C-alpha cells in the first residue's frame, strides 16, 4: 500500500510556516510542494491501477476454477449414466481439487477487492487534500506578494522621511529663498535707479522753467 504524500507530509502540518520562513522564495517553495504532491498522486494512481488489474486476474482465476468444478460434476454424472464408475470417480476427485482451488482463489480475490476499495478511497483523499492545498497555495502566494509590496512601500516611505531627504529639502529651500532675495534686491536697485533718473529729469525741467521765466521778465511779458 502506498504512503500518502510521503515526501510532503510536513506541508499538511504546523511546520509549513517554518519551512516558508527558511525558504528563499516562499512562492517557489509552494510550487515545489505542489509538484511533489502531484507526483505522489500519479504514483498512487499507478498503484491503484495495478491492484485493480490484480483483482480482475484473481476473480477470473476463481471463476474459472469454479466453472471447471461444475463441469467435472456434470462429466461425472454423464460417466455414471454411461456405466463408467471409475471415470466418474476420477471426475469427482478432480472436481474437489478445483473446488479447493476456487475457495483459495475466492479468498485472494476478496482480499484484492478490499484492497482496491481502500486504495481508491485513499487516492480520493489525496486528491481532495491536493485541491485544498492548491487553494491554500493561491492564498499564500497572494499574501506573499502583498507582503512584498507592503515592504517596498514602507521602505520607500521611510526613505522619504529620512534625515538625508530632509537635509536635501532644506538645502533646496535655502536656494529658493536666496533666489527670491536676489530677485527682490535687483527690483529694489531698479526702483532706486528709476527714482534718481526722475529726480534728475525734474531738476533739468526746473532749470528750463527758470530760464524761460527770466526771458519773459526781460521782454516785459510778466
Automatic annotation (TrEMBL):
- Top-rank taxon of the source lineage equals Bacteria
Q: Where is the composition biased (Basic and acidic residues)?
A: 163-222
User: Per its record, how is this protein called by name?
Assistant: PspA/IM30 family protein
Give positions of region: Disordered: 142-222
InterPro entries, A to Z = PspA_VIPP1
Q: Which family does it belong to?
A: Belongs to the PspA/Vipp/IM30 family.
Amino acid at each position: 500500500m502506498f504512503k500518502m504524500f510521503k515526501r510532503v507530509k510536513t506541508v499538511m502540518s504546523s511546520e509549513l510556516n517554518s519551512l516558508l520562513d527558511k525558504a528563499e522564495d516562499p512562492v517557489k517553495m509552494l510550487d515545489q510542494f505542489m509538484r511533489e504532491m502531484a507526483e505522489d498522486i500519479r504514483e498512487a494512481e499507478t498503484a491503484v491501477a495495478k491492484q485493480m488489474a490484480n483483482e480482475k486476474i484473481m476473480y477470473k482465476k476463481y471463476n474459472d476454477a469454479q466453472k471447471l468444478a461444475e463441469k467435472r460434476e456434470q462429466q461425472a454424472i454423464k460417466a455414471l449414466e454411461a456405466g463408467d464408475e471409475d471415470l466418474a470417480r476420477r471426475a469427482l476427485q478432480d472436481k474437489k481439487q478445483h473446488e479447493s482451488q476456487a475457495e483459495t482463489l475466492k479468498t485472494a480475490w476478496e482480499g484484492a477487492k478490499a484492497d482496491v476499495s481502500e486504495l481508491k478511497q485513499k487516492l480520493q483523499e489525496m486528491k481532495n487534500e491536493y485541491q485544498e492545498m492548491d487553494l491554500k497555495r493561491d492564498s499564500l502566494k497572494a499574501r506573499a506578494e502583498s507582503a512584498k509590496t507592503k515592504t517596498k512601500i514602507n521602505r520607500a516611505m521611510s526613505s522619504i522621511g529620512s534625515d538625508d531627504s530632509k537635509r536635501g529639502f532644506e538645502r533646496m529651500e535655502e536656494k529658493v529663498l536666496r533666489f527670491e532675495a536676489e530677485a527682490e534686491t535687483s527690483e529694489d536697485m531698479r526702483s532706486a535707479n528709476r527714482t534718481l533718473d526722475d529726480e534728475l529729469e525734474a531738476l533739468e525741467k526746473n532749470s528750463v522753467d527758470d530760464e524761460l521765466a527770466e526771458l519773459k521778465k526781460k521782454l516785459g511779458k510778466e
